[in-house]
């Protein structure tokens, strides 16, 4: 399925929903006292179970998967588990703002990997928009950027987790050219839950001894940032470039910082508000450049030019 199947306008709402949904992830993680790997396990397991009743409709597509497809799906699940494990762990060592600043580098990682693995090259205007957005996201988080050794360790974990999700997105983009997004999400989330389960068994963590409030947080992690966040991202990858979808992560510092202010009393400075405006402006510039580039690509003149033999 390609980007021409749906109009850009019809994709704006799910794009905004997913951007808002992922902003709740660091808040929910901070509320939980369970080990981050246990949070990750039940986040993915509950998502898998919520999707499973509707999975029977996808059985014909699942039967068509090759051994190579299963290997790539398992790899995507591994990188997703690694991302969650490293990023969620970072929140125990550094602030929400400092952790999310590393996530803003995701579009850079994805753009580099997309160039080498998908032959997907960004235009100059798109690169400028990306740079402006990342600069704004850095300003948002700069007021709380950690300088201690402990904070630096947490920031490093978040950076490695960002690299892991970039590999996951590239694998997703490639796999979604030959399978429905529901099949991809269902299987990858299942693999991710299995990887977390194996890790928790090896680490000796309890997987049952938690109060009801923790189970509520696990369920919310599955529904809000996963179903309405990551699952929607996977669907959007069928219609948008990998780098475009990864740009949505830049909304997380804005949403997470606002929620942290309301729930944890973390102040937002005028400097950070300016950064938020800059991030939004850069994101709009990026999307407009992408839309303009697609229109030029699909214009009658461009089509006619391509059809002329050299």
From TrEMBL:
Localization, UniProt: Endomembrane system
Domain of life where this protein originates: Bacteria
EamA domain residues: 15-141, 153-287
Pfam families registered for this protein in UniProt: EamA
GO cellular component: membrane
Coiled-coil spans in chain: none
Membrane topology: Multi-pass membrane protein
Annotated transmembrane regions: 12-29, 41-59, 71-90, 96-118, 125-145, 151-171, 183-203, 215-237, 244-264, 270-287
Keywords: Membrane, Transmembrane, Transmembrane helix
Family statement: Belongs to the EamA transporter family.
Stated name of the protein: EamA family transporter
């Amino acid at each position: 399925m390609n980007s021409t199947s749906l109009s850009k306008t019809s994709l704006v709402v799910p794009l905004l929903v997913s951007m808002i949904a992922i902003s709740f992830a660091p808040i929910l993680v901070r509320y939980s006292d369970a080990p981050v790997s246990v949070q990750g396990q039940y986040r993915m397991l509950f998502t898998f179970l919520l999707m499973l009743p509707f999975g029977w409709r996808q059985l014909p597509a699942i039967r068509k998967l090759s051994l190579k497809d299963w290997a790539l799906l398992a790899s995507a699940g591994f990188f997703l588990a690694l991302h969650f494990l490293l990023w969620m762990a970072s929140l125990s060592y550094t602030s929400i703002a400092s952790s999310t600043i590393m996530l803003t580098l995701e579009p850079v990682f994805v753009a580099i990997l997309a160039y080498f693995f998908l032959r997907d090259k960004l235009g100059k205007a798109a690169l400028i928009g990306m740079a402006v957005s990342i600069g704004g996201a850095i300003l948002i988080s700069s007021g709380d950027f950690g300088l201690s050794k402990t904070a630096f360790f947490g920031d490093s974990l978040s950076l490695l987790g960002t690299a892991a999700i970039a590999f996951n997105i590239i694998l997703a983009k490639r796999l979604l050219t030959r399978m429905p997004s529901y099949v991809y999400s269902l299987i990858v989330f299942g693999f991710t839950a299995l990887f977390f389960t194996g890790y928790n068994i090896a680490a000796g963590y309890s997987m049952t001894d938690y109060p009801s409030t923790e189970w509520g947080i696990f369920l919310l992690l599955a529904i809000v940032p996963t179903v309405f966040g990551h699952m929607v991202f996977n669907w959007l990858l069928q219609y948008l470039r990998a780098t475009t979808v990864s740009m949505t992560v830049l909304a997380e510092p804005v949403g997470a910082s606002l929620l942290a202010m309301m729930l944890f009393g973390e102040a937002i400075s005028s400097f950070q508000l300016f950064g938020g405006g800059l991030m939004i402006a850069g994101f709009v510039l990026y999307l407009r450049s992408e839309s303009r580039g697609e229109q030029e690509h699909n214009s009658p003149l461009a089509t006619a030019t391509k059809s002329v033999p050299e």
